[in-house]
Write a structure and sequence with these properties.
The chain is an alpha/beta fold and about 260 residues long. It has 2 domains: about 190 residues, Nucleotidyltransferase, domain 5 (2-Layer Sandwich); about 55 residues, no CATH class. Helix content is about 45%, strand content about 15%. The chain contains 12 helices and 8 strands. The strands form 2 sheets. The chain has a 5-stranded mixed beta sheet, sandwiched between helices. Strand 7 and strand 8 form a beta hairpin. The longest helix is centred in the middle third of the chain and has 19 residues. It is globular, with a radius of gyration of 19 Å. The mean pLDDT is about 90.
Length: about 260
């Protein structure tokens, strides 16, 4: 019988452990081709699902080489648009867990929901990322984490259902080993409050910081003062509109347009 993570952490809402296989690595441009989740609820119930999705675009051979899913595999599968309303009801008002979901899976899922007309919201303290815990305690990969915590080989790597099952087992073992309070503390200290889908900017102590480039961990105010041309370059470069809007809003509020 699977251990219920919501009960182990004393959560007041369900926690959903999920994994995405996609057409690529861009949280803005790429699409989901396989979706797997385990939903642990405070009432003790656990539900799960794995589904293939038609991304409505070709799957690059490089991506197929990673997860093994081809255009032919998803040709007759539903689109995310068709499943969005049902998945939104399952996912809303929950905690979210997985391996590296804070920087990839959650932003990409938010983008897919947005395309389908749903406002999927989550806060930094809604996220319990197995990778954050693991890298703080035992820096390795998902397969190594599975072997370290569960004593097993992860034979189904890059398979959504296999990755979800492995991550759920890892989280359960991490709770046993470190305790729920230490896990919550780790996330409060390490999860960044990103303000755009690409994770190029984050908010801390009421200020917006760069999360990339030579200005990483500098405030947007200080960059505007020392190198304002860099901000204007961002508006012309190949970034998402969501990322550019962070700069536009700052420039407008700072009267630097």
């Amino acid at each position: 019988m699977k251990e219920n993570i919501a009960l182990s952490l004393g959560l007041d809402r369900p926690i959903i452990v999920f994994d995405l296989e996609t057409t690529g690595l861009s949280v803005v441009k790429d699409r989901i081709v396989e979706f797997g989740y385990l939903k642990h609820s405070p009432d003790g119930t656990i539900s799960s699902e794995t589904l293939l999705l038609n991304p409505e675009c070709p799957i690059p051979p490089a991506s197929t080489a990673v997860h093994g899913i081809s255009d032919a595999d998803v040709a007759q599968s539903p689109t995310f648009q068709k499943e969005a309303a049902r998945l939104f009801e399952i996912f809303k008002d929950s905690y979210y867990s997985g391996f590296n979901i804070a920087r990839y899976d959650l932003p990409l899922l938010k983008q897919e929901f947005s395309r389908a007309g749903f406002d999927f919201q989550f806060r930094p303290n809604d996220i319990i990322d197995a990778k954050v815990i693991y890298h703080a305690m035992e820096p390795r990969t998902l397969s190594a984490a599975y072997k370290h915590y569960c004593g097993k080989e992860h034979a189904e790597a890059h398979d959504a259902a296999g990755d979800v099952a492995a991550t759920a087992e890892i989280i359960a073992e991490q709770i046993k080993r470190y305790g729920k309070e230490e896990i919550k503390r780790l996330h409060e200290e390490t999860i960044l409050d990103f303000v755009d889908l690409e994770g190029k900017f984050y908010r801390q102590d009421g200020k917006i910081y760069f999360a990339f480039s030579k200005f990483k961990d500098r405030t947007i105010d200080s960059v505007a003062e020392s190198d304002p041309t860099f901000l204007r370059w961002l508006l012309q470069a190949d970034f998402s509109e969501d990322t550019k809007n962070v700069v536009r809003t700052f420039l407008k509020n700072s009267n630097l347009n």
